[in-house]
Specification:
Length: about 150
């Protein structure tokens, strides 16, 4: 299940999201620059799967991003996982976690609980809808806000 920003497409912003698992941690995500009406839209997912918060998942043929000099593309596959840079720093079920995501042009950075976990550049997705995903078990979100980056 997804909750989408239906009317507006976003670019150049800072997004803050807090989440916690009510019981057993499973899978969820924050979809960035989402386009299309498929169940899994073309997008860049900031992964929330337990133990993997901070991974990128690029979705959609033609989606690409460079992380630490490595170019990841979806030429033959719909999904590509780009692992986070550090070990998991997620909190236990019942405790609140924080995502601070910065989308600035073709660059996206993901900070989990104060630790920069991933930074991609030269992304092919730079604008689109934002969605919160629930997949697996009960996840709660709070304090979700967007701040425009002005240049």
């Amino acid at each position: 299940m997804h909750i989408f920003t239906q009317k507006k497409r976003y670019s150049n912003y800072k997004l803050h999201v807090e989440w916690r698992w009510v019981t057993k941690p499973t899978n969820s995500g924050v979809l960035l620059h989402a386009e299309g009406d498929e169940f899994w839209p073309n997008c860049v997912e900031a992964q929330l799967q337990a133990g993997n918060a901070g991974d990128f998942v690029i979705m959609g043929i033609g989606t690409a991003m460079t992380v630490e000099g490595v170019v990841y593309t979806n030429e033959d596959s719909r999904y590509t996982v780009i692992p986070k840079q550090h070990e998991s720093n997620e909190k236990s079920a019942g405790e609140w976690n924080e995502y601070d995501i910065v989308c600035d042009g073709a660059a996206i950075s993901i900070t989990v609980n104060g630790v920069l976990q991933n930074k991609g550049v030269d992304g092919t997705r730079m604008k689109g809808h934002i969605a919160l995903q629930s997949e697996g078990s009960h996840v709660q979100f709070r304090n979700v806000y967007i701040e425009k980056i002005t240049k």
